């Protein structure tokens, strides 16, 4: 349990990695949270002259953002993604399109190498689904990205649930919720075999005299026969710096928690209250421990949207200005899709319950978040959701000076047992500029955020979380049993 000193700063270091900065205080990790779309978590801000979201279809947007995040010392840029639009609200896609509520959407994979070319100490993580492509193709693409970023690459593992996305690839209905996670578990084990078990470390041994570049006897053919996947192939890409990218996951349903406790190194969570979030985090840590993993090695990142000013008054004025551009319908479109509740059909002041979700396919952890009350939200109604969803979308919004917001973030770290945050933006790059100029210096002043690396130091995504030298999967991670020197093929 974290303790605190008089200024409210977290002082106990964690196990499971080098979270301690050497001063006895726990490091806070910050990831920038973006999406290759116009309206991410604050729909409507494209109308704001300060917002550059509509320029995301240019490489320059991503290059300049990466430079800014590198300058500030962000841990990573995390890019969400989705496959298909949100059509639960009014049973139509029209308002998703009209309000630019995560529509249109470009592929987050494409700009990664451009950003990696202009940065040295910024990691990148993207969302990709286990539902839509064979493991071999994803393994090839992600090994390539890990090479091109010099090991600063991570994957947010998701299972897909939208009807629109499945229809787009020719399937009528999504796979049932828990079944998706069983499928994803096998998917990951196929990937571990390719990434960890196919190539020996010394398989590449150039021998010009004998016209030999790599030794085929040191590249194992993976023969996998499972319930969902069959594979008979060597991995076509040589081992990348991390072999397996740093593994993120989002979702705290029962099946999602079980999957996360098995595979995830970082977990994205969101809630309006730390007291609601804490038992979910405790449960996943307990599950991880039961699987033989150090529970503190699983790092939790909470969604958090800061609205910062140099004074409290400046921050509040900024918030009032932002509200002028918010699209409440856009927010309702997103929440309707996440929860499976068509909020257009519910009276504005009627309290919502899980029973209002009549769609089979939805994000169960989101439904739980929007129907679990707390002292912060004693009653969820469409009116309350409309107010909260249009700015920040998923989680808490901190408004105030750097000191005020830092105090609030430390409170979340302590009360929910978080390890860091995914920083959502209201306007981009404005929110991120404020974090770099105001918030990170305040966190550094408190001794709970790392200084910029000195000299030529460069760490992989995994080393940035666990410490120098931990480039590959930890020994207590289940993927480690597939490493080349200990790999044994599973029975069919």
Automatic annotation (TrEMBL):
Region (Disordered): 449-492
Domain Luciferase-like span(s) in chain numbering: 46-412
Biased composition (Basic and acidic residues): 453-492
InterPro entries reported for this sequence: Diverse_substr_monoxygenases, Luciferase-like_dom, Luciferase-like_sf, NTA_MOA
GO terms of molecular function: monooxygenase activity; oxidoreductase activity, acting on paired donors, with incorporation or reduction of molecular oxygen
Top-level taxon in the UniProt lineage: Eukaryota
PANTHER family: ALKANESULFONATE MONOOXYGENASE-RELATED (PTHR30011), XENOBIOTIC COMPOUND MONOOXYGENASE, DSZA FAMILY (AFU_ORTHOLOGUE AFUA_6G01920) (PTHR30011:SF30)
Similarity annotation: Belongs to the NtaA/SnaA/DszA monooxygenase family.
Protein name: Luciferase-like domain-containing protein
Phylogenetic placement of the source organism: Eukaryota, Fungi, Dikarya, Ascomycota, Pezizomycotina
